[in-house]
Amino acid sequence: MKFADRVLLLPSLAGLLFLGALLVNETTGRANARLVEAIEHDYAPALQVCSDAQAALLDVQRALQDAVTAGDPLRLREADGVSRHLLEVLEAGRQNPGLDEIPSVETAYALYYDGARTTSLRLIGGEGSDRLQPDIVRMMLTQTGRLVAIGVRKGGLQRLQVLRSVWRFRRGCAVR
């Protein structure tokens, strides 16, 4: 091959490599756009539902404790209202395809709340705490094991890591 042909080949090769770089850029750009869309429409709302459910659960526990501390069974109605709010939060989370374990969480919560309310009534009625100890331990295990599972099971932990990575990336972009 002559030197003149080689010189003419270089711009053609550079153009071909440039088109290859554009193709790679377009492919990764579309993949990133799908990831950002999934984060905005699936993962971030799922994380919000998990956070709201955990906050509502703490409110339920506080309301039950307040009723027992006050010794007033009528204050359990407040706990019932907070419990309905938690169920509404879980119901709103059913629309998110990433939270398909919500029905099992609702079932576990219903068992937990039924036991917690009954135990609270027994405490208000003056029943000794020694006889209630097994029920109290069962309540604690039920709520801890199932409601925390919303955020960890079936990729929830991976979603959280993705969200953290995106947050670090956005924070890094804002600093530059």
What would a concise description of this structure say?
With 176 residues, this protein is mainly alpha-helical. It has 6 helices and no strands. Helix 1 (3-70) packs parallel to helix 3 and helix 2 (76-93) runs antiparallel to helix 3 (102-124).
What does the model show?
- The chain has 176 residues and is mainly α.
- The protein has one domain.
- Helix content is 86%, strand content 0%.
- It contains 6 helices and no strands.
- The C terminus is likely disordered.
Secondary-structure blueprint:
Elements: H1 3-70, H2 76-93, H3 102-124, H4 129-147, H5 149-152, H6 156-175
Number of helices: 6
What composes the largest sheet? none
Q: What Rg, in angstroms, do the CA atoms define?
A: 27 Å
What structural class results from the helix and strand content?
mainly alpha
- Following the backbone from N to C, one meets helices and strands in this order, namely HHHHHH
How much of the sequence lies in strands comes to: under 5%
Distance between the termini: 49 Å
Q: Shape from CA axes?
A: rod-shaped
* Number of individual domains: 1
